[in-house]
Amino acid sequence: MMKRLMPTFNRILVKKVIQPAKTESGILLPEKSSQLNSGRVVAVGPGSRDKDGKLIPVSVKEGDTVLLPEYGGTQVKLGENEYHLFRDEDVLGTLHED
């Protein structure tokens, strides 16, 4: 049975990106190398409401690569996959390839 989690309100579901332990040429990277704490957005909630009841949409969309805080979020395990739930305002930024 396949489980699918749909976030509520202004929450986003993220699968963290694991940085490689070595380069393409085979050089091993140290654990403390500068790695971005990033992830790919898997699902987004509809957004939150302001005091007048108007919908404030989430600022990211499915498929975006986002920069995440070092700590925070709620860990969720679905089957063999591990995800994290964050509030939209917890996301530090989006990453774009040039």
Would you mind describing this structure in some detail?
It is a single chain. The N and C termini lie far apart (39 Å). The mean pLDDT is 84. The chain is elongated, with a radius of gyration of 16 Å. It is an all-beta fold and 98 residues long. The chain is 0% helix and 36% strand. A hairpin with a 5-residue loop joins strand 3 and strand 4. The relative contact order is 0.30.
Radius of gyration: 16 Å
Described by the principal axes of the CA atoms, the overall outline is elongated
Q: Could you tell me the number of beta strands?
A: 8
Task: Give the biggest beta sheet.
Answer: 6 strands, antiparallel
Query: Fraction of residues in helices?
Result: under 10%
Alpha plus pi helix count: 0
Strand residue percentage = 35-45%
Q: Give the distance, in angstroms, between the N- and C-terminal Cα atoms.
A: 39 Å
- What ranges have pLDDT less than 50 throughout 5 or more consecutive residues? none
- Helix vs. strand class: mainly beta
Order of helices and strands: EEEEEEEE
User: Order of strands across the biggest sheet?
Assistant: 6-7-1-2-5-8
Mean pLDDT over the full residue set: 84
InterPro entries: Chaperonin_GroES, Chaperonin_GroES_sf, Chaprnonin_Cpn10_CS, GroES-like_sf
Protein name: 10 kDa chaperonin, mitochondrial-like
Keywords: Chaperone
Family: Belongs to the GroES chaperonin family.
